[in-house]
Write a structure and sequence with these properties.
The protein is mainly β and about 220 residues long. It contains 4 helices and 12 strands; from the N terminus they run E-H-E-E-E-E-H-E-E-E-E-E-E-H-H-E. Strand 9 and strand 10 form a beta hairpin.
């Protein structure tokens, strides 16, 4: 799964990479946690757009939010069949800008070891995602989203058996286009190339959802 990630590139670099029309200004975030607002890139008829959504997907059929599980991830292998994700997969695919994500490796004894995983050589990534605007019983609307995961590649499998599905820039249009049939976008949900991701252990300070700062990414 992907339960924490980071978006630390300057806003102008994110805008240039994803080519959306808005000019948002946002600070670097080194420890994005579930239920917090996350940036999304979506496609409309007039091009790509930036938006914010709560990290925690809510399908339209949910009656009681308090009793519904927090859906921060969706498995690529099953999203086409899951009632929670079928409608969003057809019409509301998105890209989630990120500079890296965190996973925890289990140890034979003691606490799990956290790792930062990011593109080898650094740089932005685009996680595949789904979004949905949820209408609660009072009539309030909330935009929600989740990250799509796939099986880990050979290198990252030593840390965790799952990883975010990463969409490369040449495939942005195919993934985002709401007129594209589901089969083609689904084919993009695959593990990253073997040499595409680098990782190193980081401090257990990352375990706290309120922790922030560049020092969280320092190698230990």
């Amino acid at each position: 799964m992907c339960g924490r990630f980071a978006i630390t590139s300057p806003p102008e670099a994110v805008r240039a990479f994803f080519r959306y029309s808005e000019q948002p200004n946002f600070p670097p975030r080194y420890n994005v946690a579930p239920t917090q607002p996350i940036p999304l890139v979506i496609a409309r008829r007039d091009g790509r757009h930036f938006m914010l959504a709560r990290w925690g997907f809510l399908p339209g059929f949910v009656k009681d939010v308090k009793k519904f599980p927090l859906l921060i991830n969706a498995r690529a292998e099953t999203i086409a069949e899951k009632p929670s994700f079928r409608a969003a997969l057809r019409r509301r695919r998105c890209l989630i800008p990120a500079d890296g994500w965190y996973e925890w490796r289990a140890n034979l004894s003691g606490p799990k070891t956290p790792f930062l995983l990011r593109r080898a050589g650094g740089g932005l990534m685009a996680f595949a995602g789904l979004w949905e605007t949820y209408l609660d019983p009072s009539g309030s609307e909330i935009d929600t989203a989740c990250i799509i995961t796939t099986s880990a590649n050979g290198a990252t499998a030593a840390i965790h058996d799952r990883m975010p599905a990463i969409i490369e820039p040449e495939n942005f249009e195919q993934w985002l286009n709401p007129d594209e049939t589901v089969a083609a976008p689904l084919s993009l949900l695959r593990p990253a190339d073997e040499d595409a991701i680098a990782f190193h252990a980081v401090s257990t300070r990352i375990n706290g959802a309120g922790a922030e700062g560049a020092e969280l990414q320092a190698s230990v």
